[in-house]
Amino acid sequence: MTNLDEHGRPEPPLDADELGTLTGFLDWQRATLAWKTAGLTAEQLNVTTAKSSMTLGGLLKHIAYVEQQWFHVVLLGSEPLEPWASVDWKADHDWDWHSAAQDTPEQLNALWQDEVDRARKAVAEALETGDLGQLSKRPGWRDGPHVSLRWILVHMVEEYARHNGHADLLREAIDGQTGE
């Protein structure tokens, strides 16, 4: 049974195996981002703070890209899907961040949730033929080494944790909402 906190986030299990612990913390971080972006308008998703150009909408689109890149492209070795496949990343390496201003909240949330669902399926698919130590089909970076599924899961917890800190600041600037 999954325990939910006051914001609807699934509490990470206290006594799970390695996979359950890693995915439990990743799901908690994903739910934190959902909480921080819930109920906002397109205008609110485009608010910046201080000197940063970062927005919650851009963060949602960026993390959707990161989900697809690490699980679909790197882990499984699949080709990128749209909207990522047709982006000229050399010409605009921050496309995911600033193109979000052209998307509705519904589009951003659907894109992100679709990538989360695809990522969960990618993990399940990988675990059908290997364990957490299996290496990705593609290198983690252009000329870098292949990474383990374990490494990808830990990296994604880190990626969400870092960006959820940004989301805290942005959400507080929008409507004063604070929380862990």
In short:
By secondary structure, the chain is mainly alpha-helical. It is 54% helix and 4% strand.
Biggest sheet: strands side by side, in what order?
1-2
- Beta strand %: under 5%
**Uncertain regions spanning at least 5 consecutive residues:** none
Q: What share of the residues lie within helices?
A: 40-55%
Compressed to H and E, one letter per element, the order equals HHHHHEEH
| Main sheet specs | 2 strands, antiparallel
* Alpha-carbon distance between the two ends: 23 Å
Specify Rg, calculated over alpha carbons.
16 Å
- Alpha plus pi helix count: 6
Mean pLDDT: 95
Helix and strand topology:
Layout: H1 18-37, H2 42-45, H3 56-75, H4 95-98, H5 105-127, E1 135-139, E2 146-148, H6 149-175
Antiparallel strand pairs: 1-2
Keywords:
180 residues; mainly alpha; two-stranded antiparallel sheet; 6 helices; globular
Overview of the structural elements:
The chain has 180 residues and is mainly alpha-helical. The protein is built from six helices and two strands; from the N terminus they run H-H-H-H-H-E-E-H. Helix 1 packs parallel to helix 6, helix 3 (56-75) runs parallel beside helix 5 and helix 3 packs antiparallel against helix 6 (149-175). The longest helix is centred in the C-terminal third of the chain and has 27 residues, at 149-175. Strand 1 (135-139) and strand 2 (146-148) form a beta hairpin.
